Records
---
Amino acid sequence: QVQLVESGGGLVQAGGSLRLSCAASGRTFSTNRMGWFRQGPGKEREFVARIYWRGGLTNYADSVKGRFTISRDNAKNTVYLQMNSLKPEDTAVYYCAAAAPPNGEYLYWGQGTQVTVSS
């Protein structure tokens, strides 16, 4: 099993920044990549960004490209999401998740952290 704990959410004005953290524990060696997802009020959960533990390859949703940066600290088993130029539409509960081979499905999820961007 893998346990994920997010932190760093909060209330920020539009144009501001926040950094989310996701600390992983347990059988983290069984996972190969981490992702951030979000679910806004009345919306479906959507992909935000992902990163591979090895190599650090990243991918982003078009809506956050150029504003958000995902990174990882392998020694700390922690993944970060730096969010800049925040917009009210970024308001959501943000979840981190861990995926494992062979099919790459996200098997483990954190409890989520609320991000609210005021206009």
---
Amino acid sequence: QVQLVESGGGLEQAGGSLRLSCAASGLTIRLFAVDWYRQAPGKQRELVAGINSGGTTDYTDSVKGRFTISRDNAGNTVYLEMKNLKPEDTAVYSCHAGRQVFGKNIEYWGQGTQVTVSS
């Protein structure tokens, strides 16, 4: 059974740091492109950061220089290191893993973890 399990969310003050984890089971995470999304109340889901199977990373402009996505192949886990947190970073953060196999899209979602940043 494939699972993506996020952890590491919580309540943090502005300027603080959190590290989110996306632990995978039932799949080999290094073969997938993994993205972190977030959704704040009343807002659309937003792509925050991604890392592809080759290790290339990308970030939405609002988090560049503050967030770092990384992958631990041995631990089958993707991390999102978040520094200098701002109240506008408050959202439910979810990880998504996707790849194409013989032209078919395969994707999985985690359940999400709440990040709340107080001013």
